[in-house]
C-alpha cells in the first residue's frame, strides 16, 4: 500500500509520518504544534484535562508519548497532575514539595510534617504546617547531624497543630466548592441549575443536598432523580432546581440573582462547618493556630456571627 502520510485532525495539515506528533490507538493524529496549543489548555483545566486524551475519541493518550512531546519545563508538572489521578484517594495521597514539582505518594495515614525533597536541583526540607523552609536542613548534606535534628525538633510544636489545622482546612473548604459524591472532584455550580453532572465521573448529583442520583433513589421513595426537584416547597427531603426559587418560601434568598444566592449558599455551608470547628476548639487555641496559619486571622472577628447566624438552609 502506498504511504499517503497522515493528516492532523485539528489543523488538517498533512504529515509524512507520525513522528513529531501524537496519536491514539485508533490512529487519530495530532501534530506537534496543535498538541502544544492543546497542552496549554490542558494545564489551565488540569483537573479534567489531565491525563491528556485524544482530541477525537477521548481515549487516554500514552503517557510516555505525551511526555516526549511536552515542553521540558512542564514535564514535572504533568507527572504530578497524572499522579493525582492515578492514586487511590482512599488509601493514598500525593505529597508535593512546596518549592518544586517533586512529589511522593504517601499512605493516607502518614502524618509526617517534615518533607525532604529528593529533586537534585531543589533538595529543600520544609515543614508542612508552618510552611517554612528548614534552613539548616536544606543546606546540610548530613541529615543526622545535631544541627539538623535540632531544627527539625524546633518544628515539633507545629505538629501539635496538625489535627487542628486539618480540621480548619476542612471547615474552610465548603466556602468555595462542593464535592462530587461519586469521585470527590470539587466543583462550583456554574449554570443556574442545581442538578449537576460530574465532568470526571458523570455522576448525576444535587448541588443543594450533595446527594447522588443513586443515593436519592436509595434513600427516598422518589422513583427517579427528576422527582427530587419537585414539591420541595413542602418536602424537606427534596431540593429546588434553582436557588432563586427558594425566595418563594424563604425571603432571605434572592428571587433573581442566582450568583448572589450561590454565594449565600456557600456561606451557610461554610458557617456550618466552622461552627462545628469552634465547638471543638477554644478561641485561645484558634488564636495559636492563627500564628501558624495567618489567613485564619480574617475569621477571628467572625466567630460570633458563625456561632449565632441562623444556618437553616430553607425555611419551609
Ligand atoms: Zn495540527
Ligand atoms: Zn482517538
Ligand atoms: Zn523540591
Ligand atoms: Zn513548622
Ligand atoms: Zn465525579
Ligand atoms: Zn437535593
UniProtKB/TrEMBL annotation:
PROSITE patterns: TRIAD. Pfam families: Rcat_RNF216. Keywords: Metal-binding, Repeat, Transferase, Ubl conjugation pathway, Zinc, Zinc-finger. Pathway: Protein modification; protein ubiquitination. Residues 4-231 form the RING-type domain. One of its GO terms (molecular function) is transferase activity. The keyword Metal-binding applies. PANTHER family: E3 UBIQUITIN-PROTEIN LIGASE RNF216 (PTHR22770:SF47), UBIQUITIN CONJUGATING ENZYME 7 INTERACTING PROTEIN-RELATED (PTHR22770). This is RING-type domain-containing protein. It comes from Euplotes crassus.
